[in-house]
Amino acid sequence: MKHFDxxxxxxxxxxxxxxxxxxxxxxTEAQVPPRHVHAIETADADKGTxxxxxxxxxxGFLGIKTINVFPGNSARGLPxxxxxxxxxxxxxxxxxxxxDGNELTARRTAAASALGASFLARADARRLLVLGTGRVARLxxxxxxxxxxxDEVLVWNHRPEGAQALAAQWRAEGFNAQAATELxxxxxxxxxxxxxxxxxxxxxxxxxxxxxxxxxxxGSFTPAMREADVRCFEGARTFVDTTEALQKAGExxxxxxxxxxxxxxxxxxxxxxxxxxxxxxxxxxxRTVFKAVGSALEDLTAATLVWQHAESxxx
Length: 315
Hints:
Rossmann fold; ODC_N; NAD(P)-bd_dom_sf; ornithine cyclodeaminase, domain 1; 14 strands; Ornithine cyclodeaminase family protein
């Protein structure tokens, strides 16, 4: 079994390659069972969550990702999420590779965010606001710049020094980036608002969102987590990555309970968008919302790219 560390996992997953690969994967058939979710409680420790996400396809690959989520890690100076990924031969069950699940998860999540925006953000969207400074948040300018003409990036975080440090990092990477000190003002001027946090209380309020804006919610993935209030869905066309979001996303559950969204008003999934079964953005003034909780198909697609890249290299 081959082992791919963080660098080897990252190398084949540039967004110019990964976003189109996800689009092709969502347009085809694959087997993606519901994820297994278990609460982890141990004596004298913060509560955590373990997710187990399998997927397989006719291409001959089977993958299983295990994710440990411990939000309290930020107080320890540790990432809140740790993941591992194992790729198998789907015909024999033989293990092929162990990959860095953190890198795989971050890059496929940012790529799925960009894929959603490729259908739902205005074609001329240029001003991106990122909420959060974690591993996924750091990748969002590059991901969105692969599908939209992003030339201005703002970042907000509940710890201002974190936002300032990330903005400086992006400037070093060539982006026109600044830290936002006033969240409301930053949301009001953004073409795309992308939230990549582990928030349990709403950060973005619907009355702040400008006509024609696109709200991208990719951080929360349990009923207890939420990044946007119920008014964000009022008058907007809402899309999800998979139908699982309707059971797992705190924002959607709140909006449905609050009457600002009905389940049958959700316009479609990423698969439906990629297959042309539903329309994406239909006008420059409409507001769109994309809510993602993550799909094992995205992990399998990214892992397959890593494996195929390695196999194509000279021995």
